[in-house]
Amino acid sequence: LHGWEFKRLMGGKVFYKRVGRATRRFAITPRGFFSLSHPKGYNLLLLVEGDVGLRDALRGFVRSLEGFRDAGEGYIRLGNYIVKALGDELLIVHEERAKFRILYESFLAGKSRRKKLLVPVELGDVDVHSAGALKRLGFVIREGFLVEVPEFLGFPQPAALKSLLKAISGVERFETLAMRAAEILLSSFTVSPSELILRLMLCNNPYQDPTGKVVLRKISREDLEEMLP
Predict the structure, then answer these.
(1) What is the per-residue pLDDT for 182?
(2) Per-residue pLDDT tens digits for 39-85
(3) Strand pairing of 89-94 and 216-220?
């Protein structure tokens, strides 16, 4: 919930985050995900009615998310797509693009926890600019070895890490660095379908990957009735 704010809105309490005008907005409740048209300029994460304390509200919300995360049944893989029934809707997610979006926003957020690699990756001579770029992305290099990576990556493949080093010069804009790192490392980024969808829905823009390609679609009961009248 880093970066989110707590405020009274709409006769209740909400956890929210300001978003750009072009960002598709959504809300998360124990019943599932749905699009949001009000209030303007916010991404609503949690709505709490009545005079409920923040700690109790968060506990209830976390319990609802744990229930969603543990619901491993009902996922269907069709090639590069994950299909999940959510209430009266079918959620179709392009897995690779979803990973791309999650990694990109994770790199952009910065200040993530790091973890040590079980086996340091030898990088050899790394110029100052490239070393600085890797450090901005959350990687730690010591004496020519990559020893720590951002925690959200898991344990990426050494070949992917070396490819990342070759692909950056250290002079790119930070957004460009984040996109390049996400694109190269997504092939070694593994996550369960339930965790993937949960982390995707917590992104600022879960509907498009960093290049603008569509990540997910929802098919409602009405859509199905139109397709099969």
Answers:
(1) 93
(2) 555 555 555 544 555 556 555 555 554 444 444 457 888 888 998 88
(3) antiparallel
For residue 64, the SS3 value is helix
Order of strands across the sheet with 145-150? 114-122, 145-150, 140-142
| Sheet bearing 42-49, strands edge to edge | 5-9, 12-18, 42-49
Q: How many helices (H) and strands (E) does the chain have?
A: 7, 12
pLDDT in tens, 181-205: 999 998 888 888 888 888 888 888 8
- CA pair distance 58, 62, nearest whole angstrom: 6
Range 178-181, long-range pairs (CB < 8 A, 24+ positions): 178/104, 178/107, 178/108, 178/137, 179/104, 179/210, 179/211, 181/103, 181/107, 181/137
The C-alpha torsion from 172 through 22 and 24 to 222, rounded to 10°, is -130
Secondary structure of residue 86 in the 3-state scheme: strand
Phi, psi of 111 (to 5 degrees): 55, 30
Q: Tokens representing 184?
A: 């190269």
Rounded distance, CA 133 to CA 128, Å?
9
- pLDDT averaged over the chain? 75
